[in-house]
Amino acid sequence: MDNVKEKQAKYFFVPRIGAKYSEGFADLETLVVGAYHVCYCNCEHKHLCCNINTIASMDYKCPAYKNALPALKPEDELCLHNSNIIEINSYCDDDARYPTYTAFTHYMLDCKQGLTPEQKNDFWDSVAFYNFYQCFSTTDSVPDANDIEALNNNAVTALMQVIKDLQPKAIYVWTKAVNDILESHLDKIPELRKESLPREHSTMYLSLFSYNYKINTTSLGDVRKYLNFAFPCRDITRTFDGEKKRVPPLEKVLLRAIKRGVFLFDNGELVVYNNRPEEEGGYILNQIKKYYSFSSWKEISLIITKYTDEGKKMNLRQVRKYNNNNEDANAAAEIDKNIFGIRKK
Question: If you count Cβ atoms within 10 Å of the first and of the last residue's Cβ in the chain, which end, N or C, has fewer?
């Protein structure tokens, strides 16, 4: 990332980037987009902080931070452009209560009970956060502006620079207003696409976008239900090799393959599309046959189907003839690690 001055030439409020952002949340680099910051102070300079053309002049002059101690790092400075960072840090440290942040955290973790401090901190360390509008609002509503179109265009331009800098795969957007603005600009942003939420939120308006990526919202529960439907009278256990290598339950392996884009659900079937036996789909299927208690390839075909590139349904004959002599050892090791959790000693 650029230094603070270079960032502010693109967007005023810098995003709060979690320490584990590059690792991703659910294996996806995730950006959370809020709506706006609200200024609750009643000082003589408030009108300057609530205007996109003058807010920068108040960056280090806000009276709320007049007694702030010097910071060792730019991101720790108590100043206006760090408002996203200050807001999330305050929430994680329990210095401020933000019901919307709690509701969203519950939703993302699919947590029905109370959040532990560890859960809360771990989630926000896994994502980046950024508020859409580039100036403060005087009330709990969209910032005041004589020219709302200019305000929105300014916010869209800034957000697109944030997205280019962070390269998120998943973008969760709060409020219908911000969602509608982004949807109206999709023709100008070909890399951005609207996605379906994995489930609706009961109390807040959420939408999901992807950037240069097709998000698959299949969950572990979806895969588990699918396996139970295919094999209603038995559990798919690990074989001796599987236990020895400590491979995870099959539903986790299948979900990882789905998230990787090798498998996908298509009209109620779990599908592997690539047809060449040297491709990773074939390797994953062979490892499944090796590590789990399937009696035959015919039994595996009850849960996984094979298709040609043209969409014509085929059996798994080509896949099971995977040629180990032509195997790319590095690629195989990477699949073993990321799909099966197996690391070479």
Answer: C
Q: Over the Cα atoms of the chain, what is R_g?
A: 24
Q: What would the DSSP string read from start to end of 171-193?
A: EEEESHHHHHHHHHTGGG-TTEE
Up-side HSE of residue 118: CA atoms within 13 Å toward CB? 0
Q: What is the pTM of this model?
A: 0.66
CB 39 within 8 A of CB 49: yes
Q: How far is 335 from 284, CA to CA, in rounded Å?
A: 8
Q: Is the pLDDT of residue 266 over 90?
A: no
CB half-sphere exposure, 217, CA atoms < 13 A:
13
Tokens at residue 89, please?
């840090």
Contact between 339 and 253 under an 8 Å Cβ cutoff? The reply is yes
Listed residue (117, 123, 116, 115) closest to 24, CA to CA: 123
Mean pLDDT of 90-109: 88
Tens digit of each residue's pLDDT (9 = 90 or more) over 132-153: 999 888 877 777 777 888 888 9
Q: Are 130 and 17 in contact (CB under 8 A)?
A: no
| Interval 309-339: pLDDT, tens | 666 677 676 555 544 444 577 778 888 888 8
Coil, strand or helix at 206: strand
Give residue 170's identity as a one-letter amino acid code: A
